[in-house]
């Protein structure tokens, strides 16, 4: 258990994506280290990293008609409607030549989860869950210094509540299906990555 990376994608809807990629959902509270560890997985295992939050922030910058709505929702720590986020994820998958993707920060709620499955027919190979106490996540977010509009204490508290109320149930859903690989994320970056490596498995490491 835990080292298998196999596409389990049900191409049930006439293949909206026209490809059948391996997808790993990367979940965990705000500041648990999802983006940091995804960068390591990209380097060692050749996945493409798609962060739903990064795609939404890029959409704001692009001047899209949805930009103001997305910006307001992110400032409030709220979850953007699935149709917007899924369209961005689908486009990013289509535009990329790779066949294995880390989808970071998605699905964030039941609506995200059900809509993605319905629209793409993709089932994740597994869900990588970074488990971290709130105090540690708060410390990390307040010292992240990347100029994110949502890294202030008021929005951080709202994001924690959304994580508990809306995102944890999604993790529990996949846990009941035996798909969750939980990692203790409250350790130094290198130690966390040792656990991540064990999950992806030595046979999937990129040759140097
Ligand atoms: N294991 C760790 N120990 C200490 N600091 C860490 C660790 N992992 C990440 N960090 C730092 O914590 C901050 C948040 O990390 P990161 O951006 O990877 O989290 P995230 O889960 O992607 O957060 P968000 O959901 O807000 O995007 C960054 O400044 C990062 O350098
Ligand atoms: N599936 C998602 C992912 C992200 N968002 C919005 C709301 C989040 O607070 C924000 C930042 O995401 P992060 O970079 O922390 O993963 O982006 C969303 O609405 N839906
Ligand atoms: Mg992130």
From TrEMBL:
<feature type="binding site">
    <location>
        <position position="112"/>
    </location>
    <ligand>
        <name>CMP</name>
    </ligand>
</feature>
<dbReference type="InterPro" id="IPR033690">
    <property type="entry name" value="Adenylat_kinase_CS"/>
</dbReference>
<dbReference type="Pfam" id="PF00406">
    <property type="entry name" value="ADK"/>
</dbReference>
<keyword id="KW-0539">Nucleus</keyword>
<dbReference type="GO" id="GO:0046705">
    <property type="term" value="P:CDP biosynthetic process"/>
</dbReference>
<feature type="binding site">
    <location>
        <begin position="105"/>
        <end position="108"/>
    </location>
    <ligand>
        <name>a ribonucleoside 5'-phosphate</name>
    </ligand>
</feature>
<feature type="binding site">
    <location>
        <begin position="78"/>
        <end position="80"/>
    </location>
    <ligand>
        <name>a ribonucleoside 5'-phosphate</name>
    </ligand>
</feature>
<keyword id="KW-0067">ATP-binding</keyword>
<keyword id="KW-0418">Kinase</keyword>
<feature type="binding site">
    <location>
        <position position="57"/>
    </location>
    <ligand>
        <name>a ribonucleoside 5'-phosphate</name>
    </ligand>
</feature>
<protein>
    <recommendedName>
        <fullName>UMP-CMP kinase</fullName>
        <ecNumber>2.7.4.14</ecNumber>
    </recommendedName>
</protein>
<dbReference type="InterPro" id="IPR006266">
    <property type="entry name" value="UMP_CMP_kinase"/>
</dbReference>
<dbReference type="GO" id="GO:0005737">
    <property type="term" value="C:cytoplasm"/>
</dbReference>
<comment type="subunit">
    <text>Monomer.</text>
</comment>
<dbReference type="GO" id="GO:0005634">
    <property type="term" value="C:nucleus"/>
</dbReference>
<feature type="binding site">
    <location>
        <begin position="31"/>
        <end position="36"/>
    </location>
    <ligand>
        <name>ATP</name>
    </ligand>
</feature>
<comment type="similarity">
    <text>Belongs to the adenylate kinase family. UMP-CMP kinase subfamily.</text>
</comment>
<dbReference type="InterPro" id="IPR000850">
    <property type="entry name" value="Adenylat/UMP-CMP_kin"/>
</dbReference>
<feature type="binding site">
    <location>
        <position position="187"/>
    </location>
    <ligand>
        <name>ATP</name>
    </ligand>
</feature>
<keyword id="KW-0547">Nucleotide-binding</keyword>
<dbReference type="GO" id="GO:0005524">
    <property type="term" value="F:ATP binding"/>
</dbReference>
<feature type="binding site">
    <location>
        <position position="148"/>
    </location>
    <ligand>
        <name>a ribonucleoside 5'-phosphate</name>
    </ligand>
</feature>
<dbReference type="InterPro" id="IPR027417">
    <property type="entry name" value="P-loop_NTPase"/>
</dbReference>
<dbReference type="GO" id="GO:0006225">
    <property type="term" value="P:UDP biosynthetic process"/>
</dbReference>
<dbReference type="GO" id="GO:0033862">
    <property type="term" value="F:UMP kinase activity"/>
</dbReference>
<dbReference type="GO" id="GO:0006207">
    <property type="term" value="P:'de novo' pyrimidine nucleobase biosynthetic process"/>
</dbReference>
<comment type="function">
    <text>Catalyzes the phosphorylation of pyrimidine nucleoside monophosphates at the expense of ATP. Plays an important role in de novo pyrimidine nucleotide biosynthesis. Has preference for UMP and CMP as phosphate acceptors.</text>
</comment>
<feature type="binding site">
    <location>
        <position position="159"/>
    </location>
    <ligand>
        <name>a ribonucleoside 5'-phosphate</name>
    </ligand>
</feature>
<keyword id="KW-0808">Transferase</keyword>
<feature type="binding site">
    <location>
        <position position="144"/>
    </location>
    <ligand>
        <name>ATP</name>
    </ligand>
</feature>
<keyword id="KW-0963">Cytoplasm</keyword>
<keyword id="KW-0665">Pyrimidine biosynthesis</keyword>
